[in-house]
Amino acid sequence: SPSTFCSTLLHKYPSSYIYNEHMKIDSSALMNAMRERHSVKKYNATPLTPQDKAFVGNTIAHINATSGLNMQLIENEPEVFRTFISARTGLISAHSYIAMVGTAHKDLDFFVGYWGELLVLLLQSRGIHTNWTGGTRRLGLSTARVQQNEKNTILIALGYGENSGKERSTRPIEALCSAPSPYSPWLRRALHAAQLAPTGYNRQKFHFTIDENGNFETNPLLWKANITAKSTTHMPLNLIDLGIATRHFELGASNYFSSVYGWEPTISRSEDPRSFSFTYPVVE
Fold it and tell me: What is the three-class DSSP state of 169?
């Protein structure tokens, strides 16, 4: 149900919970995946190895159970990418993809980006290349199982690329946030991670507003950072982009605290998933 998405994000959880406790991948590995990953358009015909297929399936199953999404791996379906748009963009050699399906809900696109990007980074760490790809025609050709109350929002092409993609330009971190200067070191790490977020046409039309209270160095128990993520465009799929950028922002902040202080902040969310806060991880 729609509430499944909110209930997953409402409770407090360590930001690395899903991939440290269950997938044995830490924030440093995911930061490396961010730096190494680029959108790949040309794939060779080699199918996923049995080991990689099992990894993809198990990872999807775990994230689905955690998020309430219904992501699905679809293999050997190259017709989806043989469209006019695919020919224009060069994405015509992909033959497998992940259908990003979920219960129709006002925040579905955000959650698709937020959880889908975690999957993308985990696949990158495994050496599996990806490409976020939209288009009504492609979605119409997909054979993903979509229930009456669900929506197939976007596809993620995956496979072994003929290359690792091209590095893309980024906006300066000062254009991505509103916060007092000078920026806290954790915020700089978070914004540099957000810079690496893939977005439609590389627009990076997202903005973070930060209200930080207290000092995490002198009294971490009283420290709190309130963050609001906002899309600055009304273009299609803008909330998917925002979800992707938010995932990167959180991972960057978590990586800073874990690498410098040995702890990761607890992330708490309000009913609106775009408003969240970081606090010192207190055991309840």
Answer: coil
